[in-house]
């Protein structure tokens, strides 16, 4: 495997690019570079991880069960987060495994929560980012409550993915929604 890259990704990633100097120092001091092997679980869909991973190199797979078989929903590349969607929504939603050898920055959950509370730019980035893992979990919940014969969660995700939008909740915005909108979601822990 290639030599581990420097802390540059931590500073340049859009989620962290506008951190205060204090926030940047906390992030770099509290993060640890880790190596993962092919097939190793990075996150499970039933446990909120105790750390958020930021992929540095290699690939990972966001997984789901579709008609009883394990399927790749999305391939995650360098710059992708694993565990952030689960932490921000306060409910696990990410089954992710390494597609090959990879490196990732491990950022403790306490540090991520501290940055959310003290760094408006990071909080705003999280609030404005649509996490596919969260959308998948919401689609799965919708289909569990209202099953549609012959429609899998993966099929429904592909159908709604391009139409999914983030909105700031307010009475005015909700009143203007199209009547065909059937699914609204909000991350529980992020206030921009």
Give an overview of the whole structure.
The chain has 192 residues and is of the alpha+beta class. The protein has one domain: Jelly Rolls (Sandwich). It contains 8 helices and 8 strands; from the N terminus they run ααββββββαββααααα. It has helices at 8-12, 21-30, 84-89, 109-118, 120-127, 132-145, 153-161, 171-175, and strands at residues 32-36, 41-43, 51-57, 60-66, 69-76, 81-82, 95-98, 102-108. Strands 1-8-3-6 form a 4-stranded antiparallel β-sheet. A 4-stranded antiparallel β-sheet has the order 2-7-4-5, with helices on one face. A hairpin with a 2-residue loop joins strand 4 and strand 5 (69-76). The longest helix has 14 residues, at 132-145. The model is unreliable at 1-6 and 186-192 (pLDDT under 50).
């Amino acid at each position: 495997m290639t030599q581990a890259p420097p802390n540059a990704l931590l500073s340049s990633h859009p989620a962290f690019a506008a951190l205060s100097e204090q926030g940047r120092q906390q992030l770099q001091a509290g993060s640890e570079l880790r190596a993962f092997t092919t097939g190793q679980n990075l996150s499970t869909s039933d446990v909120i991880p105790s750390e958020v991973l930021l992929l540095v190199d290699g690939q990972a797979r966001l997984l789901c069960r579709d008609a009883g078989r394990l399927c790749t929903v999305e391939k995650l590349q360098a710059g992708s987060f694993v565990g952030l969607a689960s932490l921000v929504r306060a409910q696990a939603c990410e089954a992710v495994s390494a597609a090959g050898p990879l490196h990732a920055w491990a950022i403790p959950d306490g540090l991520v929560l501290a940055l959310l509370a003290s760094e408006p730019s990071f909080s705003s980035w999280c609030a404005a980012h649509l996490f596919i893992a969260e959308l998948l979990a919401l689609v799965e919940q919708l289909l569990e409550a209202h099953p549609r014969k012959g429609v899998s969660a993966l099929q429904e995700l592909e159908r709604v993915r391009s139409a999914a939008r983030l909105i700031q909740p307010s009475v005015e915005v909700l009143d203007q929604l199209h009547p065909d909108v059937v699914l609204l979601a909000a991350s529980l822990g992020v206030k921009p």
